[in-house]
What does this fold into?
Amino acid sequence: MYTSKISGLGVYVPDNVVTNEDLSKMMDTSDEWIQERTGIKERRWIKPDSGDTASSMGAKAAEKAIANAGIDKKDIDLIIFATLSPDYYFPGGGVLVQKLLGLDTVGALDIRNQCTGFVYGLSVADQFVKTGMYKNVLVVGGELHSKGLDKTTRGRTVAVLFGDGAGAAVVSRSDDQNRGILSTHLHSQGEYAEALTVKHPSMTKWVPEVVADLDNLTYYPFMDGQLVFKHAIVRFSEAIQEGLQANNLTREDIDMFIPHQANLRISQYVQKKFGLSENQIHNNIQKYGNTTAASIPLALTEAVELGKIKKGDLVVIAAFGSGFTWGSVVMRW
Ligand code: COA
It folds into this structure.
């Protein structure tokens, strides 16, 4: 088996900052409510005429990740693209990233695991690199939430949470046996699929039926927030524990924990449970909201750029989200 590591990271967020104050002009909400419940101060939402999409933002992040890895685009062997806000119903956004990057006809795989999408993507990339099939796999998470949210008081519980943006990582074969991705673990529990969902349009109810029944709002995200919260804190903790145990490590070994940025309260609960100090966790949901498949690369890249992650550090990533799905990645940086 070969060793795999993250060799490059890159992010892209739209310039347009939307503060909680801005939201309070669109719906009955307040900076105080949003910060107290979620930690979010602002998020990025594309300007509607910007032309940005999940795949175009993903491609911009990917360009940076490839440059950061110090490789050429033609060295990418496979694209993995995670999003819950695709440009098209089909085809998936992976092929659009391939086109935008001008890559050769490499494979493009789409991941539909929402907030856990990047963890699933890293896990798939890790397998391809470890088995020797590919040398460089591009993992991209891109999200355009702002066009699909109900920005009225009716949709405020969900609308205040989500932001647009993208992040990417290059997962590469490495000669260094002592560093790299140590383990990944993936989980799902479909009995809660409807607890966090956009149900339609889909093949259970296509556009004409949705249009005929617009009051049902099934085209906006639905979330049972408290149920999601309760499951998230349990599954985050399990995922971390499982990753540590698989590597004969304990919580004392964690140098940096990068949680999917779902809610600052969820991250803080997990931080406390594992006895992690402020220096052992990185959150940036305050600036970007929940960017779903993009949130982990956005937080990981920032932590690296701030010098909070150093060579040899044990980095633990965990995510939980719609599906429900959850998982972890343990890496020696
Ligand atoms: N602004 C102001 N008030 C709001 C509001 C908003 N944006 N959204 C909801 N409210 C109101 C509700 O109407 C309700 O009012 P009421 O008491 O008069 O009925 C009150 O605030 C409490 O609502 P509730 O939904 O019970 O709040 P909560 O404490 O559960 O917090 C979340 C809501 C969404 C912040 C919380 O449930 C959560 O974070 N869940 C997990 C979400 C998540 O992580 N999702 C992504 C998964 S990856």
About this structure: The domain at 3-174 is CATH 3.40.47.10 (Peroxisomal Thiolase; Chain A, domain 1). Residues 136 and 172 are 4 Å apart (CA to CA). The chain has a mean pLDDT of 97.
